[in-house]
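#onboarding

Welcome to the new folks! Below is a worked example of what a typical request in this channel looks like: someone posts a single protein sequence, and someone else replies with the predicted structure as tokens. Don't worry about understanding the tokens yet, we'll cover that in week two.

Example request:
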Amino acid sequence: MSNLVESITSLVERIIATFGAPGISLIALFENLFPPTPSEVLYPLAGKMAYAGKVSLPAVIIAGTLGSLAGSIIYYTLGYRLGEKRVRDMIARYGTLKILRFNIQLVSVQDFERGLELFERYGSTIVLIGRLMPFVHGVVSIPAGVIRMNIAVFTIFTTVGAALWIAPLTIFGYWLGDNWQEVLLWMDTYQTTILVLAVVIAVAYVIRRGRQASVH
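Example response:
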């Protein structure tokens, strides 16, 4: 992760130096549309630039929140336009990964329907919590669009969740200031933790699917 951070740092710095706060909104928009983008790095970096006086700290948080909201609305619109039936058909067709002779079901129609039921009951809470989770905070808007969550409610909870995600990361970078290498160390630890958790979750998921398949 540290190598990735070093490779994108100069690009992000050029964008912010050229466009200022609107550049942060563009970065946030891109980060939401492409979940693998490491926002855990982008916002501390923007905080460092605020420390250097290239942009104000409140501007970073506000611009990042607005860019995140824009990306979320795009995904919300995608889910809204596709609708429940199309998404269900896509899952039925592409929800199973075939590797050699093995079929690994990534997501089932039943999982999708249970997810929609949860969104119907706790949609606003799921949107808020989802905004605080890496990789998930962008795509969580799709099921919100599928169930056609009230757009005003969606906007409010998305904005609050985005701000709660962006503000601490930005302030963290501002607090570190010129000690940017500490962010890289922190990110290496973060990457290792996420990798371990992902492996554990993946193994548990495969075991669960295997047990379900044996039962049926």
